[in-house]
Amino acid sequence: MFVISKERFEELVEEALATLPEELSNQIENLAIIVDDEAPGRSLFGLYEGIPLTKRSPISYSAVMPDRITLYQTTICRQCDSEDEVKAQIRKTVIHEVAHHFGISDPRLEELGWA
C-alpha cells in the first residue's frame, strides 16, 4: 500500500481531469467529484451516481443535484506501490467514471480497456 496525503491525492485527481480531451471536458455538465476513503461494503476505486447525459432531457432533468463521481483513496492506494501507480489508477478511474457520465456502459468500457 502506498500512503499519500489527501491533498496530494486531490491534486492527482485534478491532473487526471486536466488530461481529458477538451472536446469532452467542455461537455461535462452538473458533475461533482469527491474523494472518500472507501466504499461501504464494497471494494471500488470509484463510483458514478447520477443521470448520464444520454438520459437527460429538458423535461426530466431540471433543478437536480449534481451527479457525483466518488474516488476511493484508500482502496486505490491499497493496490499501489508508488505515486506513479496511484496516478495511473486515478487517471484510469476518472476516465472510467466520466465515461459513465457520458452514458458509456461497463461492457463497452471493457471493450475499450478502461474497465
Characterization of the model:
The structure is a single chain. It contains 5 helices and 3 strands, in the order ααβββααα. The chain has helices spanning 6-18, 22-25, 73-78, 83-101, 106-112; strands spanning 31-36, 46-49, 67-72. Helix 1 (6-18) crosses helix 4. The model has no long low-confidence stretch (mean pLDDT 89).
Give the helix level as a range of percent: 40-55%
* C-alpha termini separation: 21 Å
* Helical stretch tally: 5
Provide the spatial order of strands within the biggest beta sheet.
1-3-2
What is the number of E strands? Answer: 3
Q: Find the CATH topology.
A: Zincin-like
Draw up the topology in text.
Elements lengths: L5 H13 L3 H4 L5 E6 L9 E4 L17 E6 H6 L4 H19 L4 H7 L3
Parallel strand pairs: 1-3
Antiparallel strand pairs: 2-3
Helix pairs in contact: 1-4
Q: Keyphrases for this structure?
A:
3 strands; Zincin-like; single chain; globular; alpha+beta
Can you describe this structure in just a few lines?
The chain is an alpha+beta fold.
